[in-house]
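User: Structure with iron/sulfur cluster, C-alpha cells only please.
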Amino acid sequence: MFGKRFTFPGGIKPKSYKELTKNCPIESLPEPKSVLVFFHQVIPTGSSAVPIVKPGDKVKKGEKIGAGEGKISSPVHSPISGIVREIKEFPHPVLGRKSLGCLIENLGDGETALLPENLSPWEKIREAGIVGMGGAAFPTYLKLNPPKPVDTLIINGCECEPYLTGDFRVMVEYPEEVLLGAKVMAEILKAKKVIIAIEEDRKEAIESIGSKIKSQNSEIKFQLVISHAKYPLGGEKQLIKATLKREVPSGKIPYEVGVCVQNVQTTFAVYEAVFCNKPLYERVVTVSGDGINKPKNLRVKIGTEIKEIIDFCGGMKDGVEKIIFGGPLMGIAVPSPSTPTLKATTGILLFTRKKEEPARDCIRCGRCVSVCPMHLLPSILYQMIKNEEFAKAKEEGLLDCIECGCCAYTCPAKIGLVESFKMAKAYGK
Amino acid sequence: MENKITVSFSPHIRDRVNVEYLMFSVVVALIPALIGSVYFFGIRALIIIILSSLSSLLFEGLAQKAFGRKITIGDGSALITGLLLAFNLPPNVPYFIPIIGSAFAIIIVKQFFGGLGYNFINPALAARAFLVVSWPSFMTKGFLPPRFGSLSGIDGITQATPLTLLKDTRLMNPTAYPKLVSQFSSLPVLKNLFFGSVGGSLGETSAFLLLLGGVFLLINRVIDYRIPLSYLATVFFISLFHKIFFQNAVSPLFHLFSGGLILGAFFMATDYVTIPITPKGRVIFGIGCGILTMLIRLFGGYPEGVCYSILFMNVLTPFIERYTKPRIYGR
Ligand code: SF4
Ligand code: SF4
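Assistant:
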C-alpha cells in the first residue's frame, strides 16, 4: 500500500508475541500508594540529578525534585502528590549498583505542577526531564542540540523487540500528538525532513499515522517509511542504514551523517511538554510474557514498584523465573518484584522457567556472522576475549558491537556471546 | 511472590535451533541416498553403512573417554562422519575398511585436534584419502554396477565408474575416446547418471537423491547456499568452456552429476568446522573447490577430484577467513 519496504543486512526474525497486547488499549494504572524515583534516569555514563527536596517536604505531582546538573543529566519530577519520606541509596535496576532515590508517599490530593509558561520549546523539553524512552535514556534536549547540522529527523516507531507494543499503541491512539511532537523537534533541529519508520506488520499504526500525515501542511516534509519486520531495525544505526542508506562512522553518533533519531514515546513526551507544559513523570509500559495473567499496555507513573503493576495485571503465574525491564533481546533482568520503573522502562516481561541448554564449543557454523547487523565476527571475537586478547578484540570491532543479542539468540551452541562482549567492554575501560 | 528470580545477561530468549537440530537435519537429509544405496547395491551396502556408523560412534566415545572429554556421541556429528565415510566407499570393499576408516576419521582427524569444532579438515574425506593411499586396490576397484533391489550384490563383478572409464579411455584408447564422449553426453546416459544407474561410491551414485537432501538442508537453512552454489556453478562454467573450446569434451551436465560432486558440494564442502566462517570466504571456498575439481578431472592423474579439492581448500580455510572479513558497519 505504501510502496517499497526498507531493510538492512543481517538481523533476526524471532516470534513477535505482540498479539498478546497489540489490541489492548492503553489503560492508566491507578495512582500507586508510593513511588521510588531514582535521581539517575539517564544513561549509565550520565550523571544523577541532584535532590532539591528533603524528607518531610510536600511535593505536587509534576514538581521538580531533582535538578539536572552535570554534563549528561536531566531533571526529575515527582509523579504523584505526596510527602517525601526518604532520600537515600537504593539498588538501581539498570546501573547495577546503589544510587540515590526518593521515596514519596501518596497523599492523594491530586494537585499538579506545570512547567513555567515562558520557556522556549527546547527549554521546556529540557525542564520536563525528557530522556530517550526507547531504552537508551539519553537526555533529549542534548540530542536536540546537535554539534552539526541535521537534515533528517527519524521517528523510530519500529519497536522491533518481541512482546513490546507500547509505542505501537501510542501511534494508534495519539497519531496527531506524535506528529506534533515530531514537528516541534524538527523545527528545533532545523531539519527539512521527518521520517516516521514503522514495521510492516503494525497495520493499525501505519494507517493512523498515515492518514494524519496526509493532512499535514508544513514546510517540513513528512514521510512514512514502512520497513520489514526484523530485529534490530529499531537500532539507530540499522534504522539510518535502512531508511537513508547512510552509515554512521564507527565510534560516532548519528549527527555525523546529518540524522537525529527519536523514539515514539519520547516524541509524545515532547508534545506533552511543549503543548501541555507537562513534565515527564509517566509513560506507557507493556506488561507481558508467559508469566503474567493479563498482559496489558499501561500508563504508569515513573517509580512505581513492579509488584503493583503485576497485581493490576491479574498477578503473576506460578513458576516465574525472570522479570525483565525492556524486551527479551536487550532487556535487563531485575532482581526483585519491588524494583521501581524508570523513564526508559519500555516493558515489564515475566517469564516462567525454561530449561536452558548448557553452552558448548563453537561449531563454526557461521550463523552468528550472518545475523550480526554490524558485520562483526562474533565467534572470533568471543575466542579472542576468551584468550584475553582485548586489544585484538577491539581491533576486530568489539566496541562497534551494539549488544543487540542477534548472535547469541541464533547460536546453536548456546554460547554466551553478548555476555562476554559486555564484560570485555566493561573490563577494557 | 516467593519465586526465585534469576538475574542473567540478555538475550533472554534463544532460537530453538541447537547443535543436535543441525546435525540430525544432515542425517535426515542423507536418508534418501542411504535408502538408494541399499536399493542399488544390496545388503552389502547396508552392512558397510552400519559398520561405519557404529564404529564412528564407538571410536568417538572411546576417544572422548581417553582424552577425558565430555562424551557427546548423541550430538550427531560422529554419526554424520560415519555415514559420509560409508558414502565415499566403493560397494565392494572388505568390511574392515569402514572400521579402519572410522578410526582414522574420528580418532586421528577429529579427536586428536580437540573434537567437534577444532578439526581443520573434514574427517570423512581425510579418512577416504587415507584409505585410497593405504589400500588403493580396494578403494579404486571396488565398484559394482547397481543391482536395483536385488539383495545380494555380494557376488558382483566390479565395474569402472563413468569418470574412471572416461579417464582410462582417454589415456589408453584415444581412438575410442570421441565415441565414449558423445555417448556420455547423450540424454539416456545423463539420465542414468542423474538417477543412479551407474557404478560409483555407495552414496554418490544418485545425484537426484542427494539433491533431495541438499534442497531440504537449504530450505531449513542448515547449510549456507553459498558453497554448493559457487562450487557447482564453477564446475558448470569450467566444463562449459571446456566443451566450447575443445572437441571431445563431455557435457557439463556429465560433470555435475558424476563422481560425487553433488555429495561433496552439499554435504562435505559445507561441513561447518572446516570451511570459512565469513560469507565471502565461503564463496571463495566453493569456487576454489570447483576449480580444483575440474583441474584434477581434466588434467590430473586421478579420475575424480572432489575429495582432494575439498581437503585442499580445508587447509586454506584459515587464510581465506583472514582475508575475507566483512567490512564492519561504519568503517
Ligand atoms: S556481535 Fe554485537 S552487534 Fe553483532 S550480533 Fe552480536 S550483539 Fe549484535
Ligand atoms: S553461532 Fe555459535 S556455534 Fe555458530 S559460529 Fe557463531 S559462536 Fe560458533
